[in-house]
Amino acid sequence: MGRELIRLVDCCMSYDGEQVLDHINLYINDREFLTLLGPSGCGKTTTLRIIGGFTTPVAGEVLFDGRRMNDIPPHQRQVNTVFQRYALFPHLNVFENVAFGLRIPKVVEEERGGKTVKRKKKLPEKEIQERVLEMLEVVSLKGFENRRIHELSGGQQQRVAIARALVNRPKVLLLDEPLGALDLRLRKDMQSELKRIQQQMGITFVYVTHDQEEALAMSDTIVVMDQGRIQQIGTPEDIYNEPKNAFVADFIGESNILDGIMHEDYLVEFFNRKFKCLDKGFAPMEPVDVVIRPEDVDIVPVEKGQLRGTVTAVTFKGVHYDTIVDFKGFKWLIQTTDFHPVGEVIGIVLNPDDIHIMHKSQYSGMFGDYSSYSEEYDEMDDVTLLDEEADGEEAEDDEE
């Protein structure tokens, strides 16, 4: 990625007295694929509209290449937008839809007799032809120039909208949930296409979605938003593996979120037992949220488990089973390729890198099943003793 291109500084926005953006601070690099991710009403589309110039923040600054852009209208910014509804012209063919913006005369300034004068200038037809055909090739629609819009599939229509937005050679392309109208298979195909186009064109994409899978698949950087605030900024890997709070952990993938106490660096307690982890920097005995991803839980025979519970539901997902396990009132989601029937009592094992620690936040207790310290766990010994107990039991068995 290149240098910083866009910066939002303390941007606030409100409608009818209700604040929808609360001091947003964000920078976007040149040639970066950045995704604004969050639920409906979180402020992501408003943020996109502020970047595009469709909305002016009530406070804060919008900087483009270091220049303040708050009062610059959309058509004077080097930005184009692709919306969920593509707004293609049904009476024009593919070529003319893409060429539409190029045919609008541009106002240029020229020096004449020592004075600066403005005049309208049209692009030569040959240049229009070359640029449209170039864009159609980029979006894999070469040969579709004469097709009517109603003759295209949803995915092809979306490609036309992208080509139309890119043909003016913007520095930034804004995409507001552009895959929302497509079916699941086509959405996945277009995710790969959008990333390819962005890399081929070498421009900045700012993408809005509520779909965490889309964000993880395409982005260089993800900005997770809720209630008009940025909750976390990071790479897809960072966001998924090291969520900052319970909202991020719950919104990005599935999570089991538990109450815990951080005894010291690399040692956390939950379910009245201590587990080794890879986290540090917390205060001694600080209450924390513990995140355990469903795919990180290993199911083992009961006698080898650090914890044991009862399977209450199983759903086949194709490549794995979603298995709900009840640990005496606390239900976990475990994703496993092995089938375990309802009613089976199982054991589970957690490795240090399976356990992720977060500070408590306003979202603590809102997501996951937070029941803890049930009678079953009070009865079970500390996990640090389990290996010794297991060794002792094996010895007893050998003596018998």
Can you describe this structure?
The strands form five sheets. This protein has a six-stranded mixed beta sheet with strand order 6-9-10-3-11-12, with helices on both faces. The protein has a five-stranded antiparallel beta sheet with strand order 15-14-13-16-22. It has 400 residues and is an alpha+beta fold. The protein has ten helices and 22 strands. Mean pLDDT is 87; it is low at 370-400. It has two domains: 4-240, 3-Layer(aba) Sandwich (Rossmann fold); 255-399, Beta Barrel (OB fold (Dihydrolipoamide Acetyltransferase, E2P)). It starts with a strand and ends with a helix.
Provide a compact summary of the structure.
26% of the residues lie in helices and 34% in strands.
Describe the structure using short key phrases.
alpha+beta, six-stranded mixed beta sheet, 400 residues, OB fold (Dihydrolipoamide Acetyltransferase, E2P), single chain, Rossmann fold
The level-1 CATH class of the largest domain:
Alpha Beta
Flag low-confidence runs.
370-400
What gap, in angstroms, lies between the N and C termini? 66 Å
Q: Can you tell me the CATH topology of the largest domain?
A: Rossmann fold
Total DSSP E strands: 22
Total domain units: 2
Strands ordered across the widest β-sheet: 6-9-10-3-11-12
The whole-angstrom Rg is 27 Å
What percent of residues are in strands?
Answer: 25-35%
Structural class designation: alpha+beta
Assigned CATH architecture of the largest domain: 3-Layer(aba) Sandwich
